[in-house]
């Protein structure tokens, strides 16, 4: 092998000293800046599209239509019971659809798997299937008292994040109050 000359040793990009490197020798990429910029873009878009102050646009509730309704005061000052009732319905429907109709699209609007005890095990037992069916049927009986169009608009808001104006908001409020009723 030939010894390299001084000119050959200086050729190419110089290696930066004092930076963290991956095991293969490349500089480590820090994704925290990218995550922060993506979050700030989302917050700015929520502020612009929904006319929200920054402290509300940063919350998780601002990420979906029913949450924005709660932040706007549509459910009153204490909106948590209404949100819990809607969330319970979304979780029950997602579990039911997973068992009965595996090809059915799951809800997109709410983060229904965020940790409130979802029972989406790979193969549910027959007892679990019966429990899920009973829970779903119980919630459907509660919603049966609402007009048909209200149920459709509620489904659109809860599952597809589409709120059809003021009438859609009223439908969500009606259905949420029916779900909260004993």
Describe this structure in words.
The protein has eight helices and no strands. Helix 5 packs across helix 6. The chain has helices at residues 6-10, 32-50, 54-57, 65-72, 80-100, 126-143, 148-160, 165-180. It is elongated, with a radius of gyration of 25 Å. The mean pLDDT is 83. The longest helix is centred in the middle third of the chain and has 21 residues, at 80-100. The chain starts with 5 loop residues before the first helix and ends with a helix. The protein is mainly alpha-helical.
Provide a quick synopsis of the model.
This protein is mostly helical and 182 residues long. The protein is built from eight helices and no strands.
Layout of helices and strands:
Blueprint (H helix, E strand, L loop, with lengths): L5 H5 L21 H19 L3 H4 L7 H8 L7 H21 L25 H18 L4 H13 L4 H16 L2
Helix pairs in contact: 5-6, 5-8, 7-8
Tell me the Rg in angstroms: 25 Å
Reported for the largest beta sheet, the result is: none
Shape: elongated
Count every beta strand, where a strand is a DSSP E run of 2 or more residues. 0
Strand content: under 5%
The number of distinct helices, counting runs of at least 4 residues, comes to: 8
Helix content: 55-70%
Keywords:
elongated; mainly alpha; 182 residues
């Amino acid at each position: 092998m030939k010894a390299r000359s001084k000119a050959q040793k200086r050729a190419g990009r110089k290696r930066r000293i004092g930076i963290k490197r991956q095991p293969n020798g490349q500089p480590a990429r820090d994704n925290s800046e990218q995550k922060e910029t993506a979050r700030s873009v989302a917050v700015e878009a929520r502020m612009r599209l929904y006319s929200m102050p920054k402290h509300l646009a940063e919350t998780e509730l601002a990420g979906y239509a029913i949450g924005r309704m709660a932040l706007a005061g549509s459910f009153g000052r204490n909106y948590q019971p209404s949100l819990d009732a809607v969330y319970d319905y979304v979780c029950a429907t997602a579990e039911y659809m997973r068992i009965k109709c595996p090809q059915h699209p799951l809800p997109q609007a709410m983060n229904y798997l965020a940790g409130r005890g979802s029972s989406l095990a790979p193969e549910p037992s027959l007892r679990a299937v019966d429990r899920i069916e009973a829970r779903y049927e119980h919630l459907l009986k509660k919603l049966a008292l609402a007009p048909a169009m209200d149920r459709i608009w509620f489904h659109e808001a809860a599952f597809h994040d589409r709120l059809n104006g003021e009438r859609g908001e009223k439908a969500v409020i009606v259905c949420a109050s029916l779900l909260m009723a004993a």
